[in-house]
């Protein structure tokens, strides 16, 4: 038997494919996430941010600069990916990365004044997009959807 020959008993029937297509939570959450991200990317384009950049900057908008690990956890992003996403925003002068004064091994993330202005400019675009998307979900189901997604994440 060659590497390309698959025993017949290991081939899944097409009905299984259809079942997964129609019932897989992961597939449908990923599809919805990509569709929502495109809509928010379009909405935020006038201020020069993507939806991911907006979320990242918003995660830094707090009284005390968070550690990279805190932001990584909040955004469900590994530290390497987060660091890669920070670099363009840092180059644009929207945030700074500094050594944690209490733990020299840790880094803290802070919005710059330009970052705060960018976030303030972006927020009304986000708000309008959020409102439009929530209105597509009947009744108070948008709140239920949000609660369900929070439970899964």
Question: How are the secondary structure elements laid out?
Answer:
Layout: H1 14-23, H2 25-44, H3 51-60, H4 68-74, H5 79-91, E1 95-100, E2 103-111, H6 113-135, H7 141-152
Antiparallel strand pairs: 1-2
Helix pairs in contact: 2-6
Task: Characterize this entry briefly.
The protein has 153 residues and is mainly α. The chain has one domain: Winged helix-like DNA-binding domain superfamily/Winged helix DNA-binding domain (Arc Repressor Mutant, subunit A, Orthogonal Bundle).
Summary tags:
single chain, 153 residues, mainly alpha, two-stranded antiparallel sheet, 7 helices, 2 strands
Helix content: 55-70%
**Order of helices and strands, N to C?**
HHHHHEEHH
Give the C-level CATH assignment. Answer: Mainly Alpha
Instruction: Please give the number of β-strands.
Output: 2
Identify low-pLDDT runs. Answer: none
* Biggest sheet overview: 2 strands, antiparallel
CATH superfamily (homologous) name: Winged helix-like DNA-binding domain superfamily/Winged helix DNA-binding domain
Number of domains: 1
Structural class category? mainly alpha
Strand order of the largest sheet: 1-2
Overall shape? extended
Please state the CA-atom Rg, rounded to the nearest Å: 21 Å
Beta-strand percentage range: 5-15%
Number of helices: 7
CATH architecture assignment name = Orthogonal Bundle
Distance linking N and C termini: 43 Å
Let me know the average pLDDT.
94
Oligomer: single chain
């Amino acid at each position: 038997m060659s590497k390309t020959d698959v025993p017949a008993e290991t081939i899944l029937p097409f009905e299984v494919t259809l079942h997964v297509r129609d019932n897989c939570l992961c597939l449908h959450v990923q599809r919805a996430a990509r569709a929502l991200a495109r809509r928010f990317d379009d909405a935020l384009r006038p201020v020069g941010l993507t939806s991911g950049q907006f979320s990242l900057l918003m995660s830094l908008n707090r009284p005390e600069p968070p550690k990279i690990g805190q932001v990584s956890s909040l955004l469900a992003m590994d530290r390497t990916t987060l660091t890669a996403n920070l670099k363009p925003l840092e180059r644009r002068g929207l945030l700074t990365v500094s050594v944690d004064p209490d733990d020299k091994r840790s880094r803290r993330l802070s919005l710059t004044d330009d970052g705060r202005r960018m976030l303030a400019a972006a927020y009304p675009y986000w708000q309008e997009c959020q409102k439009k998307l929530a209105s597509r979900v009947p009744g108070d189901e948008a709140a239920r959807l949000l609660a369900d997604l929070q439970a899964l994440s």
